[in-house]
Amino acid sequence: MELLLIWSAIGLAAGWLASGFVPGRSGIAGDIGTGVAGAVLGGVVFRVLRLHLPFRGIGSTVAIAFLGAVFLLLVLRAVRGGQMYKR
User: Fold this and answer.
1) Are 38 and 71 in contact (CB under 8 A)?
2) What is the Cα–Cα distance from 23 to 47, expressed in whole angstroms?
3) DSSP per-residue string spanning 2-67
4) Is 86 helix (H, G, I), strand (E, B) or coil?
5) Greatest C-alpha distance within the chain
């Protein structure tokens, strides 16, 4: 249960920060989902490319999740032709 709350908090922080760089309407649940997916994507990319941040701990986790979330949002925007989150 604690791990779920931690991932949700990291996902919310990373998704909220990423939505500031790649505007769109997603809400809290969307920010959490984007952040968690970004954390997975960022973690895989950083591991495969053997990249490391100059700091550790929760800060590096949020930073990697943020970078992954920004990348994910940019890819989604490109695939959807700029019509991201419009209803």
Assistant:
1) yes
2) 28
3) HHHHHHHHHHHHHHHHHHHHS----HHHHHHHHHHHHHHHHHHHHHHTT---SS-SHHHHHHHHHH
4) coil
5) 40
Burial-class residue 46 by CB neighbours within 10 Å (0-12, 13-18, 19+). Answer: middle
Residue ranges of domains in the chain = 2-79
Structure token digits, residue 74: 């940019």
**Predicted structure pTM score:** 0.82
* Amino acid 76: pLDDT: 85
Q: How far apart are CA 50 and CA 31, in angstroms?
A: 27
Nearest to 73 by CA among 4, 10, 9, 14: 14
| DSSP letter (8 states) at residue 76 | H
pLDDT tens readout for residues 37-53: 998 999 899 999 998 88
- Residue of 29, 11, 6, 27 lying closest to 69 (CA atoms): 11
